[in-house]
Amino acid sequence: MFKRQIAIGDIHGCFSLAHELVEEIIKFNPKEDRLIFMGDYIDRGTENLETVNYVSALKTEHPENIVLLAGNHEDLAYKALSQRTMEQMQLWFINGGIETVKSFGTLENLEKLLLPFIETLMFFFETPQFIYVHGGIPHNQTVYTAQPNALLWERNYKTYRGKNLIVGHTPHREVTKYENTIVVDTGAVFYGKLSGYDTVNDVIYEAVSDTIMQTDIV
Ligand SMILES: [Mn+2]
User: Fold this and answer.
1) At 33, is the secondary structure helix, strand, or coil?
2) pTM score, two decimals?
3) Number of domain units in the chain
């Protein structure tokens, strides 16, 4: 099967880092690799349209090799753009959505390009060894019983027990292993580092930028 299965952390509009990680550091090879993107493609960083276009193109070109998970920022954007209440729009904007709006340029683009992209994303992805999910699994739940959106917001990576999880969502300085959870979000937009973790070979790949775009963590 796949010689490498690499989970890639939260990109948050850092297209340049994502492109460097996949093309130059991982050197993605569709004959051997599966890439699992952990969600939160948008918000806070500036290259949001580029990021969505890039991961969409990867998925279209290599549908068997690319898994695109949803993150809580896609949930925020989707609710804001589909419900259009002041409350949902504000919630999205103050959590970095304003950068996504600027990047897509027009409301038309957001509706035409971002909403359909979000609709294709998966809430979790399961292999014999791992469950890949953006946030985590709420206590006393499974990926099958939990509310799908709850999987995008959960942060119990320290206390979760069960089948091993790979998660993003909570920025760590390094890819970090807890008892039953491995966190691969290394804060592309906060610390300037985007990481990939290969679960088959236990190898970490990193793209590092010296530009730290934002420092407040929400
Ligand atoms: Mn998140």
Assistant:
1) strand
2) 0.95
3) 1
